[in-house]
């Protein structure tokens, strides 16, 4: 695969994350001229071009106009991020099969030789009465059941291509079940993430339940160190730890995440591998976390992880049911409601740029 990076790539500046629905604002941008660089892969040619929304404003194009372009061998996409957890969004509403393979997704997600992303998300036709179906390929080609930041990006993507204004909600079929996001008047997305799964074999984990069938503050030996862990599934597996068995609480900024993260992910106690959240308690309503995601590694945010860690914190008696969770990319608001046992996540999702890839 060969990328001929001969186009000028225009990306919105970090100071300009808010975009007008009418694409009428002129936004400052940073330009990176990649002309003349020859980057090599092993298979067919891939050319990636991208532009900020300010460029489309000049052409008076809408998102649906851009994505409706039908050109053989070209993938049109939109890139979004939720607190820095970034995704390539593909309009796949005309088919129940993804428009690209998992191998192509890996190459597109490569941050040096591709577009760069934590995963590729496909907006597909709904099944079983749902309005839409969401599928995801991680940056390593694996397919997770769900992604909390990804579903917020999905919701904003649908609102853009369906030209929905104001407050809207719809249903999304995922590998973790039915998810219901609601776009708020301020552009934030509130998501009903459903009920947490606590039964050990359903997480899944081989650790034995120590509170009924749940694993709460149980011992897990990783590389010779005993950790206290609580296991929760949000449709995808999570292992949450607030510190080691010797009573030492975490200082997450001091954690060598790239060393310890993979050892949790691939631990024999997690037959489907696991996402791992390392958590520091700041108060009864304020938590700070770093995450090692299954299939993606260290990321700036993990929505399902933020939900899972609030469940773990409540089960361990560390916090109340409504918390602000600080992630490297920014805060999420999480509430585990006692009346319906559902978890609600509220946070942003921002459009970054439009792009096309010649497959």
Q: Which descriptors would you attach to this protein?
A:
359 residues; alpha+beta; Diaminopimelate Epimerase, Chain A, domain 1; 2 domains; 21-stranded mixed β-sheet; two-stranded antiparallel sheet; 6 helices
Could you explain the architecture of this structure?
Its main location: plastid. It is an enzyme of class 5 (isomerase). Its EC number is 5.1.1.7. The structure is a single chain. The protein has 359 residues and is of the alpha+beta class. It folds into two domains: 74-194 and 352-358, Diaminopimelate Epimerase, Chain A, domain 1 (Roll), CATH 3.10.310; 200-341, Diaminopimelate Epimerase, Chain A, domain 1 (Roll). Helices cover 16% and strands 39% of the residues. It has six helices and 23 strands. It has helices at residues 53-59, 63-67, 102-109, 148-161, 257-265, 303-315, and strands at 2-5, 8-12, 29-33, 37-40, 45-51, 74-82, 85-91, 119-125, 132-138, 168-169, 172-174, 177-183, 189-192, 218-222, 225-233, 237-244, 275-283, 286-293, 297-299, 322-327, 330-336, 343-347, 350-358. The strands form two sheets. The chain has a 21-stranded mixed beta sheet that branches. Strands 2-3 form a two-stranded antiparallel ribbon. The longest helix is centred in the middle third of the chain and has 14 residues, at 148-161. The protein is globular, with a radius of gyration of 21 Å. The chain starts with a strand and ends with a strand.
